[in-house]
C-alpha cells in the first residue's frame, strides 16, 4: 500500500508556533516601548542642543541678536529666530523677527525659568538670557535629558530632579 505524503502543518504545530510568538512579543513590546521613549528623549535633547548652538552661531556670524523661542511650557516646539529691526527682541511681531527653523519635539520639555519664552544670543555670540535649563523628566534611564545654557557654553547633561549635570 502506497501512502501519500502530504505537505503542510498540523494544527498542533501552528498553535505551538503562535504561542511561542506570543511569548516573544509579550517580552519584547515593553522593552521596545522603553527603548523608543529613551531614544525620543535623547533625540529631542540633541535637537534642542543643536538649535541653541545654531542660534549662537548665527548671532556671531551675522552680527544680529538671534535665539530660540517657544510658546508654551511644557515646550513641544522651538523656533530659531533673529532680530531684523535691531531692537534686540526675537519674540515680537513677525515683522521684527525672522524665523529660520522650527523643531517639533516628540516629548515635552520643561524649562526652569518660565518668565520669558526665549533664549537670546547677542551679536558677540554670548548668551544674554543664560541660566536656562531645558529638561525632560523621565522614568526611563537616559544618558541625556537636559540642556543648560550658560553665558559662554551650551551643554547637554542628565537631569536628576534639581540640576542638569553636564556629561
Task: Please describe what this structure looks like.
The chain has 167 residues and is α+β, with helices and mostly antiparallel strands. It has one domain: minor pseudopilin epsh fold (3-Layer(bab) Sandwich), CATH 3.55.40. The protein contains one helix and eight strands. The protein has an eight-stranded antiparallel beta sheet, with helices on one face. Strand 1 (66-69) and strand 2 (75-83) form a beta hairpin. The radius of gyration is 25 Å and the shape is elongated. The relative contact order is 0.15.
Topology:
Elements (H helix, E strand, L loop, with lengths): L10 H52 L3 E4 L5 E9 L13 E15 L6 E4 L11 E3 L10 E4 L4 E6 L4 E3 L1
Antiparallel strand pairs: 1-2, 1-4, 2-3, 3-5, 5-6, 6-7, 7-8
List keywords for this structure.
eight-stranded antiparallel β-sheet, minor pseudopilin epsh fold, alpha+beta, single chain, elongated
Amino acid at each position: 500500500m502506497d501512502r501519500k505524503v502530504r505537505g503542510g502543518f498540523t494544527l498542533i504545530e501552528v498553535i505551538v508556533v503562535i504561542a511561542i510568538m506570543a511569548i516573544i512579543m509579550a517580552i519584547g513590546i515593553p522593552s521596545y516601548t522603553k527603548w523608543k521613549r529613551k531614544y525620543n528623549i535623547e533625540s529631542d535633547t540633541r535637537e534642542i542642543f543643536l538649535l541653541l548652538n545654531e542660534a549662537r552661531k548665527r548671532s556671531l556670524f551675522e552680527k544680529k541678536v538671534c535665539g530660540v523661542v517657544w510658546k508654551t511650557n511644557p515646550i513641544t516646539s522651538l523656533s530659531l529666530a533673529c532680530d531684523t529691526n535691531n531692537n534686540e527682541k526675537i519674540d515680537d511681531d513677525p515683522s521684527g523677527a525672522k524665523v529660520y527653523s522650527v523643531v517639533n519635539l516628540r516629548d515635552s520639555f520643561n524649562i526652569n525659568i518660565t518668565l520669558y519664552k526665549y533664549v537670546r544670543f547677542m551679536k558677540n555670540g554670548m548668551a544674554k538670557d543664560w541660566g536656562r535649563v531645558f529638561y525632560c523628566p523621565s522614568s526611563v534611564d537616559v544618558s541625556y535629558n537636559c540642556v543648560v545654557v550658560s553665558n559662554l557654553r551650551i551643554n547637554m547633561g542628565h537631569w536628576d530632579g534639581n540640576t542638569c549635570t553636564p556629561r
